[in-house]
Design goal:
2 copies of one chain form a homodimer. By secondary structure, chain A is of the alpha/beta class. The first copy, chain A, has one domain: Aldolase class I (TIM Barrel), CATH 3.20.20. Helices cover about 50% and strands about 15% of the residues of chain A. Chain A has helices at about 5-15, 45-60, 70-75, 80-95, 110-120, 135-145, 160-165, 175-185, 200-210, 230-235, 245-250, 255-280, and strands at about 20-25, 65-70, 95-105, 125-130, 150-155, 165-170, 170-175, 190, 215-220, 240-245. In chain A, the strands form 2 sheets. The first copy, chain A, has an 8-stranded parallel beta barrel, surrounded by 9 helices. In chain A, strand 3 (about 95-105), helix 5 and strand 4 form a beta-alpha-beta unit. In chain A, helix 2 (about 45-60) packs parallel to helix 4, helix 2 crosses helix 12 (about 255-280) and helix 9 packs parallel to helix 10. The longest helix of chain A has 27 residues, at about 255-280. The interface between A and B is large, with 60 and 60 residues.
Amino acid sequence: MPSKFIEKYLKAKKEKNSVLCVGLDPGLRSFRKEDVVPSKYERKDIEAGLLDFCLDVIEQTADYACAIKPNSQYLLFTLGIKELKKINQKAHKEGMVSIIDHKLGDIGSTNDAAFYWMQEAGFDALTFSPFAGNIEEATKAAHKRNLGILVLTYMSNVEAGWIQKQSLFEWRPLYQKIAEEIKNFGSDGAIMGSTGHVTMDDIRMVRSLIGEQSLILFPGVGRQGGNMRAVIGAGGNNILINVGRDLIYDKNPGKKAKEYQMEINQTIKDFHQELEKQKK
Amino acid sequence: MPSKFIEKYLKAKKEKNSVLCVGLDPGLRSFRKEDVVPSKYERKDIEAGLLDFCLDVIEQTADYACAIKPNSQYLLFTLGIKELKKINQKAHKEGMVSIIDHKLGDIGSTNDAAFYWMQEAGFDALTFSPFAGNIEEATKAAHKRNLGILVLTYMSNVEAGWIQKQSLFEWRPLYQKIAEEIKNFGSDGAIMGSTGHVTMDDIRMVRSLIGEQSLILFPGVGRQGGNMRAVIGAGGNNILINVGRDLIYDKNPGKKAKEYQMEINQTIKDFHQELEKQKK
């Protein structure tokens, strides 16, 4: 039986005819030269500017994307619970699910403080980092707070390999062991890279380990160069393809989201036609 | 040469004659039965209540502790940049260093967004989770933003062992490899458990790998049952002993901080006397 969060995801995916997820990572000129919000959003009242940016991007992309993924490192130092609520209310009004990209990874009592605040703010799910080893405990606690939990499994940044792909447990790589834990403990899904050292075989392996119904979230398609064909060909049906910078900093995020949606759906169609051909 | 953060730590340690660190993890009745702030701090204006609690605890413990460690999961969903600045200004006015317990672990560009906001807020250092593998990149980026970086190395929660102690890299445990990276890349120190599966030998091993000058932060002394004698006997000189719940929820945090300071300093004295005896 799919979890409550997976049910929400399936509903949004169906209604939007889209697995596109919009990564809300708003950079500012004050700390970055490229990939920054349009200047009208970088105001003296930083909080209000960032909130408006997020609300506008949701508004513009809602017809083409089924999820948003606001990142804590960009938003949490400025926005408070009231602003976070507004972002999630807007996403829900538009029929999207909202996943806070938090990479939470603390001890149980501290994780639960975060779960409480995430539920208060109205998020549907969160991203979780398994370094502390407590996937089972965190999954139970998140579900109690009505939150889905997606576990970092195999990241695409070049530095991730030495921890995540190194052999462990009778020479199986750590990321495969994490995928098994996701399955065993009923977490809602895995987060995987889609570029660099992450191969289609790696993605297929994780999908087979976590089962068909769980979600795989792929960040880093678009600017980070993620491989859309690999993601779709190996990831199974329940996927989310996140596009952040390439979309949110575009002059017209709505148009860009529509292009991504069409490209994704065409790739899915091509993939299934290819499969049919091979069957014959 | 000690890093800028280690210099700040050494100064505070000397001035306060203390290695005590106060963990600011304010729980609320709205999500927890035990370990909650006194009711006068749980106001309708949650933000203002939590801020006052933090400022009051700093005020009361400043004579006996050299550091504070505000935890992001308890504070960041409510407090904004203005309130975080006030906490850090207060800590600095009182001669303490401020370490944000954030367990950051994202890709480079996202980590840097967090570093920017941490510097804006006035923190001296942060805690970092190495799951994404990018210790070197994060250390450089944190130092550019004038922040010390303390890396989770071997945690004390029971679930941590299967990832952190499992053999890796020609059968050495992962936490030892992380300690080597801390040394190689000039991170400011390690975070280690002080209870459960973490032994004195584990602590000695990490100290020998990271070198004498780096800091080891030990969370979880006090309510979590951490072993103070082990920490002091094996941890070396540059340590921080964090006490959170047992101190901040006491009726008199100042008195409690003084008791911890005296107990720690007595244990250090006893340890050195024991060493001298053994030398003779």
